Amino acid sequence: MDLFNSAFDAVLQFYFAAFSWAPPALGLAVLSAAVGVGMLWVFHKTSDQAGMKAVKRRIYAALLEMRVFADEPAVTWRAQKSLFAANLRYMGLALRPALWMLLPVALLLIHLEAFYSRAPLPLGREAIVTMRMAPAWNPQAPAPLLSAPAEIAIETPPVRVASVREVSWRIRPVTSASTRLQFTVDGQTIAKGIETGPVQRFVAARRVSSMLETLWNPAEPRIDSKTVEWIDISYPEAALLIFGFRTDWLILFLVVSMVAALLLKKRFGVVL
């Protein structure tokens, strides 16, 4: 899984670098349109197009029958049952391509979250780094040690909150950097990537030890430790502006990908 996520990250980071000259909204729009075309191709290859055409004809026929025979309850009721059955059949036919697209699209959205939803730490502004310890952690034991490169100032000693098994530090970025924090826990050194400065880029907020949580935090390798559950940095939200208005990146992604698929479905010969 780590190898797969690393490859996925490498492809996306190459894309982000290629569009580093453009506003984030433009780069996301281009990527969303490409994803829409990709989903259209997958739908064409994995769906029963002949079956879907037949089902859509049944749906249109039932709708027409309901409109023409609106004053005849028996005919209308029969048309409604036919319409309901046709819709169920359509959903069944659409399920197979949806399952083919589910995993890659979900992974793509998780990785895009790290680029369009979070911004690097602003210079000169304080931030909190938190380490969650494993249930067997002894709060009375020596606290983990944090060391940072010259670009990051550590402003407080570790603060322990035993009730939630967390240790936190306050840090402050001094200069723009893409670097790593080093934690020493029970003689083991654990690194956590950190991004600072004004340039929007890929930002991984949390590094985890759980295999399951790696699915939601895939940007960094899993922590190989029995003492630490995760390490988190409190990044600010990124602002995606469209004509001066703040927009949620997921809305833009969904709208552009769906519009691209609808506009190109005839060119691909796809029935949706």
Overview of the structural elements:
- There is one protein chain.
- This protein has helices spanning 2-18, 24-46, 49-68, 73-116, 211-214, 249-268; strands at 127-133, 145-147, 152-154, 159-161, 166-173, 177-185, 188-196, 206-208, 228-233, 241-242, 245-246.
- It has six helices and eleven strands.
- Helix content is 47%, strand content 20%.
- Helix 2 crosses helix 4 (73-116), helix 2 (24-46) crosses helix 6 (249-268) and helix 3 packs across helix 4 (73-116).
- Strand 4 and strand 5 form a beta hairpin.
- It folds into two domains: 2-117 and 245-268, no CATH class; 127-233.
- By secondary structure, it is of the alpha+beta class.
What is the number of independent domains? 2
Largest sheet: 6 strands, antiparallel
One letter per element, helices H and strands E, the order comes to HHHHEEEEEEEEHEEEH
* Rg, nearest Å: 25 Å
Shape: elongated
Query: How much of the sequence is in beta strands?
Result: 15-25%
Number of distinct helices: 6
Label this structure with key terms.
11 strands, alpha+beta, six-stranded antiparallel sheet, 6 helices, three-stranded antiparallel sheet, 272 residues
Gist of the model:
This protein is of the alpha+beta class and 272 residues long.
Topology:
Layout: H1 2-18, H2 24-46, H3 49-68, H4 73-116, E1 127-133, E2 145-147, E3 152-154, E4 159-161, E5 166-173, E6 177-185, E7 188-196, E8 206-208, H5 211-214, E9 228-233, E10 241-242, E11 245-246, H6 249-268
Antiparallel strand pairs: 1-5, 1-9, 2-6, 3-5, 4-5, 6-7, 8-9, 10-11
Helix pairs in contact: 2-4, 2-6, 3-4
